[in-house]
Fold these 2 entries.
Entry 1:
Amino acid sequence: MVIGEAAIRAGCRFYAGYPITPQNEIPEYMAEHLRQVEGGVFIQSESEVAAIHMVAGASAAGARSMTSSSSPGISLKQEGISSLAACQLPAVIVNMMRGGPGLGNISPSQGDYFQATRGGGHGDYRVIVLGPATAQEMADLTMDAFTLADQYRTPVMILADGMMGQMMEPVVFKEPQPRVYPEIYIMKGAGAGKSKFIRGLILDPLDMEEHNWTLDRKYQVIARKETRHELYGTDDAELILVAYGTGARIAKGAIKRLRNTGLKVGLFRPITLWPFPTNELRDLAKKVENFLVFELSTGQMLEDVRLALQGFARIGFHGRPGGVVPTPAELANVVTRQYDRKQGIIEHH
Amino acid sequence: MWCSGCGIGVMLGAMLRAFEELDYRNADTVVVTGIGCTGKSDDYLLTNALHTTHGRALAYATGIKAFNPKLHVVVLMGDGDSVTIGGNHFIHAARRNIDLTAIVINNFNFGMTGGQASGTTPGGSFTSTTAWGNPERDFDICALAEVAGANYVARETPYHGWELKELIKEALNKKGFSLVEVFSPCPTHFGKNNEMKEPREMLDWFKERGLPVERYRKLSAEEQENHFAIGKLVDRDAPDFNTRYEEIRVRATAQKAG
Ligand SMILES: Cc1ncc(C[n+]2csc(CCOP(=O)(O)OP(=O)(O)O)c2C)c(N)n1
Ligand code: SF4
Ligand SMILES: [Mg+2]
C-alpha cells in the first residue's frame, strides 16, 4: 500500500488504527512492515478514539505518528484531532472517504470535505488537508504531510477515497527529507533535558484567548504559504471544471471528450483543501467567466469555490453523493447540458 | 485547589513520596492525567506532565510507553475517567498488560462537575443525578482490572497513607499494567449527599469497612457485603506489552533478513 510505504520511508514510527473498509490495506501494511523496523510500533487499538489518542501520546514522546480510517472512524477521531491541534502536536491522519452520513456504505465518496476542512471537532482550529488524485501523489503527499505536521506542529489530514485505495499505478518514492523537529517539544527521558508540560485545559479565558490567537497566527501563515493546486488545460479554456481527488480524475476524462467535440474545457484542481487555493482560483476568473464544480457529494467544496468566485464568475455544479462514481461520459453530458456557449452556465449556483 | 477533607491530595503526596524513594527523575517520568478533580493534580508536578482529556489518559499513555519504554509512565484518573467514559481503554490497557501504573481516585461520583453519578456509584446512593437513589449497580474496578489481565492490583484509602505509598511503590516497580485504586472521600458532593457531610465521616466509613484482604477473604459472602478488601489483591508476572512486542519484532526482522 502506497501510503503505508511512504509513511515508513518518511520516518513514521508509530501507527495506531482500528479496521474499517475501505482502508484496511493501510493498517495491514503497517502491521507487517512497521514491526520489521527498529523502534517502529504498530497497535491495533480498541477503537478509533483510542487510536487517535495513542497517536497523540506517541507524538508527545517524539514519534512521527499516523492513524488512518474511513468516514465513520474519522468522526470518532475528531475529539483527538481537536486535542492535537490544541496541544500543537504533529500527526498524520488518513481518511479514505466512503458514502455517508451514518454508517452509509463502503463506496468512494467525497462527503467528508466539510468535516475535514471546517475543523470537524470543536473549537477554533484548523487542519491542513491534502487531496491526492494519483498513486504518485498519495506517496508524495504522505511524505509531505509529515514534514508539514512537524513544521507547523499541527495535525495534517490526507483526504482520499476508497477508489484511490484500489488504484494500481506505478509509483516512485522520493527521497525523504530529514526530520526537523526541536527536541524541546519531546518528552524524551533518559535524564535528558527539562521536563515538559503539555495540557489542553486552559481555564482562564484570557489565557485561552491568547492561545487561540497564537494558533490563529500560525494558521494564517499556513494559509499564505502552503496552498497547492494543479491547472490542466486552462490556458485556452472557456469553461473550467473545479474538482479534487477522484472527482478530478473523472473530470480529466470528461475534458478529453469535450475537447474532442471542440469545447475548450480546463480543470482547476485544489491539492490543498485547507488552505483552499482561493486567490489562485480567483485569478482564473480574470479571463474565464464560467466554472463548474464537480464533487462526489451534494456540494461541499462548492462553498469554497463560491467564496473565491462569487461576483466574479458564473458557477455551475454537478454532484453524485452516496458512493456513486459517475463516468467521464456522464460528466461530459452534464457539461453540455449546463453550459451554453452564448449564455454560459445556465443554472447559476 | 481541592476542598478540605478531599482525599486526592493524600494520594498525590503518597505518589510523590514513592517517586522520591524510588529515585525517579523528573525528566524520566511522565504523569498523564485525565480530567476531573483528580486530573488537576498536574498543577503540582515537576515531572513531565500531560494533562489530557476526559477518559483518554490511558490511550495517550499507551502511545507514550509503547514508543518509549524507558519512560516511567504513571496515569492519574478519577472513577469517571477510568471506568465510566474511559472503560474501554481501561480494560484494553490491562489486557495488553502495558507497563503503566494507573492510580485511580474512586470517590464514587463525578467530583468536578458537581457530584453526578458515575460507574462506581453504589446502587441506592444519592448523587446530583440520582436524587431518588441510584437505580444502577457499581463497578468493582479492581475485579475489572484483574479479569482484564493486569499484573498488579491493589486498593487503599487515604486513611492508610503509609500503606498507600508502599502499594504505589510496588505498583511502580511492577512490570506490566498495575492498578492502585484509592477509595477517596469527596465530602463536598458524595459525602454531603449520603449523610457523610463531615470530612472525617467518609474516612471513618473507610476505616470501619476496609479490611486487609486476608481478613476480608475469610468473611462469609453476607459479611463481605458490608466490607471491602484493601491491600494487594493481585500480583503476577505475565510478560508485559513491550516485552512481547519485541519478541514479535525479532521474528519479523528475521523474516525480513532471511
Ligand atoms: C468529553 C467530556 N465529557 C464530559 C466532560 C465533563 N467532565 C469533566 S470532569 C468529569 C467527571 C469527572 O469525574 P471523575 O473522573 O470521577 O473525576 P473526579 O472529579 O471525581 O476526581 C466530567 C463528566 C469533559 N470534560 N469531557
Ligand atoms: S469536589 Fe470532591 S473530589 Fe473534588 S476537590 Fe472537592 S472533595 Fe475533592
Ligand atoms: Mg470521581
Entry 2:
Amino acid sequence: MSWFKREKKITTPAEGKREIPDGSWLKCEACGEIVHVKQMQAASYTCTHCGASFRIGSSEYLSLLLDKGSFSERDRKMRSTDPLRFVDTKRYADRIKTTIEKTGLYDAVRTGMGKIDGRTVSIAVMDFAFIGGSMGSVVGEKIARAIDRALKHRCPLIIVSMSGGARMMEGAYSLMQMAKTSARLTLLHAAGIPYISIMLDPTTGGVTASYAMLGDINIAEPRALIGFAGPRVIRQTIGHDLPEGFQRAEFLLEKGFVDMVVPRREMRKTVSQLLKLLAE
Amino acid sequence: MAKTVLDFEKPIAELEKKIAEMRAVMQDLQIGDEIAALEKRIEELRRSVYANLTRWQKVQIARHPDRPYTLDYIPRVFTDFIEMHGDRHYADDKAIVGGFAQLEGRTVMVIGHQKGRDTKSNLYRNFGMPNPEGYRKALRLMETAAKFHKPVITLIDTPGAYPGLEAEERGQAEAIARNLFVMSQLPTPIIVAIIGEGASGGALGIGVGDRILMMEYTWYSVIAPESCSSILWRSWDFKEQAAEALRLTAPDLLEQGIIDRIIPEPPGGAHRDHDEAARILKSVLVEELEALVRIKPDQLVKQRIKKFAAMGTVEE
Ligand SMILES: [Zn+2]
C-alpha cells in the first residue's frame, strides 16, 4: 500500500531501483558496476554486467513487448475524480494534477491493443511513476475495459503489473477495484481466453492480491519484489530483518506462485512463444 | 455488561455508576424518583454522544473489546451450528471460523473472522488476522456450500490479513486473489456483513457477495487509519484525520454505493447488548436471504459481477 520508503535502515526491501537519471552513466544497484545509458537501453534496460532490470516506465515496457508501431492506446485521458475529496498533508486533487504534469500520464496504468509477432493482444502496463503505481478507480476501470476488449476480440490479455498496492486516497473505492477486476477476469476464464500476468519490481498489496496473481501464466522478472504485505510492515511484525531473497521473484518461483522467472531481455520472446503455443 | 469504557463513554459510565450506588441503598431511602431522573439523563446523554461520534470514535467502537465477535453472534443468530476445520492443504486457521448452521430453519454456511477477547485467546486467534490457510479454508467451505446449494453468510471483523513471513511464503496474495475470483462466480447467494473491523484485503478476502451490509458502528476501508497516518502524514499521530479523510464508516460507504444497507445497533453500540445486536442482525439476514434465494444462481452471479463493476468513479 505504501510507495514511500520511510525507513532508511531497511536492508532487505526494494530500496534499489530508482528512476533512471539524466547523464550517460549509471550505477547498477544490484552489482555496483557502472553502465552506460546507451548500453543499458540496448540491453532492454538491464545491466550489461549482471542482467538486473532497471525500473522503467510504461512506454519503455510497451516498446519492449509489442511490435513496433502496433500499440493503439485506449482511455488515455481517463483520470481520477477524487471521489472522497481526500486531503492529507496535500490535497489528493493537487497530487493528481502535479503528477499528471510531471509524468505526462493520467493515471497508473496504460491500456490498449497491440501486436506481438503479429498476434493481437489486449494489453495493460502499469507505471510506478504515477503515485507509486497505486490502484484506484481509474486503474480498476481501465483493467476492466482491457479485459472486455480481450473478450470482444477473443485475443489474449497481458497485464504488466508494477504497483505499491491500492491507492489510499480513494479509500474503499480502491479496495473494491480488487473485487471488480478479479470478478471481470472470471468472464475471460469462462470464455477460454488466455491471460498472461507479468510482475515487475515491485508488485505488492492489492494488485498482487487480485489480478496480478490470477494469470493463467504468471511471469516475474528476476529479483522483482512481489508480495502482499510490504517488507517494512513484515519487518515491524516479526521484529527482525527479512531473510535474503525473501519475496523476490526467485522465492515466489520456489514457493510455487509464479510459473517462471524471465529476464527482461527474453520477455518478448517468451510471451510470443506462449501466445503461439496457446493459439496453435 | 461493558467492562471497557472508551473516553467518550466515560460521562455515561459515571452516571451509571452513580445509579448503581443509589440502588444499593434504595431499600432504606425513598429515592426512586431521583433514579428515574438520572436514568433519563443517561438515555439523553447516550443519545447525544452516539449521535455525534467522529469517524475515529466509530473506529474505536468497532474495536471495542466487549463487542460481539463471530462466535458470539453464531449461537444467537443461528441454530445447529457445526464448525468445520482446515483448508485441506496446510492447517486450520483459528482466525477464521465456519460451518453449516441454520438461519430460521434454512441451512446456510456461516463463515467469519474470529478475534480473541483476552491475551490468551487473542494469541490463539492471531488477533483475527488470517493466514493464507484461513482464506483457503473459507473458500473450501464456500465451495462445499455451493455444491449443496446452500447460501453463504460471511461476518467480517479483522484488523487485516496477517503480514507475516510465513503468510507470504504460503501466498497470502494468491489466497485472497483466488477468493475474490471464486466468490465472484459462486453459484449460491452470498451475504456479507461487516460486524467490526473491515481492514483492506484481509476483509475483502471473504467479502465478495450479493448483499454487503455494515453494522452501524463499524469501519471498512483500504487501510486502517493508523497505517494511513504513518504513510501519508509520516507519523502515527494523525489517525483521527486519516479516519476522516478515508470516509470509512457505514453511512460513508452507503453514500459511496459500496454497501447496500446499514444494520442498526442497540443504543450505545453492540457491545452494550449482545442479544439485541444479534436479534437485529438476524432479522436483517433473514429478510435479505429471503429475497436472494428467489433469484436463479446464474442470474445472481451476473448481478454480482455487475455490482462490483459499478464501484468506482472516473472522469473521461
Ligand atoms: Zn548489474
